[in-house]
Amino acid sequence: MSGNESYSKVLNYSRKRTIESLEIIYLVVTVGFNLVITQSMVNSLGSKGELVGLPFYALYFEYFVIILLLLTFLDEFFKFGMFFSIKNRVVAILLLTGAVSTFLFSIGLQTNNTQNLELLSLLYFVNIMSTVIAAGYFLLNSQSKSETTHLISQFKDIKEELKRIPLSDLKIDELIQRAEKWLFSKQDTSGTWGEKNPLYETSEVGRLFVDLKKPLSYSWTQIVNGEQETRTFEQIYYLVLDVIEKIDIEPTYEKLIPLLFILNVDPKNAAFNDEQLAEITKLMFDFSEWDFVNEIQSKEFLASGKLPYIPVLGPIYKLLGQMEPAQLLADIIANTFNIVLNRSITRFNVTAQEENISNLFLGLLFNSLIEMTTDNEPIVEIKPSKDEGFAFDLPSFSDTELRIETRLEKVKEYIRNQQGIEGGWDNSVYATALCLRSVIHNDSVERDVVKYAVYFLGAQQESNGSWNNDIAITCEVLKTLHKINSQIFYTR
Predict the structure, then answer these.
(1) SS3 for the chain, per residue?
(2) Tens digit of each residue's pLDDT (9 = 90 or more) over 67-87
(3) Is 173 inside any structural domain?
(4) The CATH number of the domain where 423 resides is what?
(5) What is the pLDDT of residue 21?
(6) Do residues 390 and 422 share a domain?
(7) For residue range 217-251, what is the model confidence (pLDDT) as tens digits?
(8) 385 and 261 within one domain
(9) What Rg, from alpha-carbon coordinates, does the chain have?
(10) Is the residue at 168 inside a domain?
(11) What span, in angstroms and rounded, lies between the C-alpha atoms of 205 and 184?
């Protein structure tokens, strides 16, 4: 998504949620005074045959001012950008001109002794004050410097408004409900999700259920061929498990996610080609953090749109009890963070524009490290047995977690500081979901950085309830929103 498109969505969203009441009322009153008073004067003087010459042009010039003021009001409220080139300064000048003409006209009315004209003269004086104040307002608030200044000003207003409200007012429940409704509606009659890569997308839905700690018995209803059917989490698990047993294990993000999902549910029951995983493991021991940084910063990798597979491979090793390669990948990720924080780039040649690792990748790496250093229970309870080949009684990660946590606080601060003026990261829903989940790790959600990001995600939600009409991205956003919502619930 482009920056302009992302900005527009946030601004449009703000107009639906936030009404600047005083400004609107004031502008409406100003327009109303100009319109009512001018029309009354036209009717009064026109009936007396006095609306000729200068009075005629002065009054009808005031009509022009009214129209322009009305357009400016609409532009302020709906952010059409009609006055983006001439800005509000021109409008202010015209308003002042209209005020002067009204003032001169009201002086002329003082020579007439009729009570009606005296009243009109008084009303015209009020009209003058209203118009002058309106002109001053537009002069002071003119966004004539640049488009960037205009955007910053608008987003600043939104942020100031968000500071005054609690996070619960952003109605996260509604965002979740709409997204989950869309997600369930996208399940195919075969029980899978997705058209381009059903195995990967179905596994991402399964990973969402794992993250939400849903039991295998978790169910929902679906209309299939006109009849209502009950679908379960367990069905998804066995669909993916059946495919995993037959396919090759390849070192790519999308190929490894299904395996990670199966291991999340039941590491003891996972059947896959362990020889292929062993080959990948050998490659890892010849791979350093500098190799990794070079890879994810290369133009070829960024242009491919791929995601790095190390954030998936690390948790896989941990779930399998292969602690040596798991520790190796944890160190690669942690040292990658050190490179980002210290900017020790002298060991490889990059341009200034290539120095920063994508926030999307940083969020992905951060959440991977959290997954690796957190002992989450599998969905299926595992009872360790000495006769089993796998080491399910996993070694403790406490020392590694303690060492990493200190660095993670700095990484969290770095990621937090990368938040854009629109509330997101990289103008990306995917990056924002991952980075926001990183920022709230072991921290309070009732903070401005969280409000801005949730607001951004709410603005980017499609009318059908999804994000980017993408199953994997929608699942990532739902994981993040559920974590935030659960904290709100427990702090009430």
Answers:
(1) CCHHHHHHHHHHHHHHHCCCHHHHHHHHHHHHHHHHHHHHHHHHHHHCCCCCHHHHHHHHHHHHHHHHHHHHHHHHHHCCCCCCCCHHHHHHHHHHHHHHHHHHHHHHHCCCCCHHHHHHHHHHHHHHHHHHHHHHHHHHCCCCCCHHHHHHHHHHHHHHHHHCCCHHHHCHHHHHHHHHHHHHHCCCCCCCCCCCCHHHHHHHHHHHHHHCCCCCCCEEEEEECCEEEEEEHHHHHHHHHHHHCCCCCCCCHHHHHHHHHHHHHCCCCCCCCHHHHHHHHHHHCCCCHHHHHHHHHCHHHHHHCCCCCHHHHHHHHHHHCCHHHHHHHHHHHHHHHHHHHHCCCCCCCCCHHHCCCCHHHHHHHHHHHHHHCCCCCCCCCCCCCCCCCCCCCCCCCHHHHHHHHHHHHHHHHHHHHCCCCCCCECCEHHHHHHHHHHHCCCCCCCCHHHHHHHHHHHHHCCCCCCCCCCHHHHHHHHHHHHHHHHHHHHHC
(2) 766 666 666 556 555 554 444
(3) no
(4) 1.50.10
(5) 45
(6) yes
(7) 999 998 777 788 999 999 999 999 999 888 888 99
(8) yes
(9) 31
(10) no
(11) 10
